Amino acid sequence: MLVRDLTDGEAVARTLLVRESSRGTARNGSDYLRLILGDRSGTVPARLWDCSDDHSAVAVTGAVVHVTGRYEVHERYGAQVMVRELRAAEPGEYDLADLLDAPAHDAEKMEEGLRDLIATVQDPDLRRLLDALLGPESEVWPEYLAAPAAKRYHEAYRHGLLEHSLSVAQSVSAISATFPGLDRDVAVTGALLHDIGKIEAYGFAGAAIEMTDAGRLQGEIPLGYYRVRRAIEELEGFPPARAEAILHIILSHHGALEHGSPVVPCTREATLVHMIDNLGGRLGSFDRLEKELPDGERWSGFDRALASSAYFASRAAA
Length: 318
What we know:
single chain; 318 residues; alpha+beta; CATH 2.40.50.140; Hypothetical protein af1432; 2 domains; five-stranded mixed barrel; two-stranded antiparallel sheet; elongated
């Protein structure tokens, strides 16, 4: 049984991945653990009252733990697992593939798609930049290949950055032929590099995703901007106008100042990348929510990323 299939009042005795862990103090002065536990189908909040230092040492972010307790849906606090016992899971008690979400396509297929797309970029300077950052022999490529696209809302798993960036770039490539005035090579290059800062902004704590110190202190957009700018400065004779076009896409791809972009999109190419990036993130949230739905359910709960619940017509038809 998966996390998404838990029902109110059900006893829980299973191995789960600790996605988040923090310690708090109750009004009576006793310590407790606040946890987010999960498997490949989703996550669930959990709480262990009267926890000890041993519990805190075991239930660190990224650890796999065996939990005994009860799943409850509280009218005020929502769904959570009330944990009675918690210990480190033994290696033979779980298969890590059951605890981790993953892309729909394997990494080799996605890399093949990325190589094919890069080969269509005709501008020699942009090809030099893409080869410097995403070439199979580049220092950056192994990090780009492994990185997640987010901590929680979309493509929050290993290879998620590649999946998201490739999807955005392929969509940008297809749409570029529809609207006049677009520089297709600039748009595709910007799409492939727009989230490259995430390789420094996110890291893996064991098997869980965490924001790094650099991610918290600087943010993924500045990290990506400086990485790409450094790469451009190392390429002799790189045209300043091309550099400005790519860097503007990276700086503006969140679309609004209140969403973390230092500037808003001011070019056709930056506007296109922002719109497709936003669409990809939102549709990725639908994928996440559908994976988390128990069999027979057609509506998700309220989701912050969508600012609404999600409805799945295919489940309604079934």
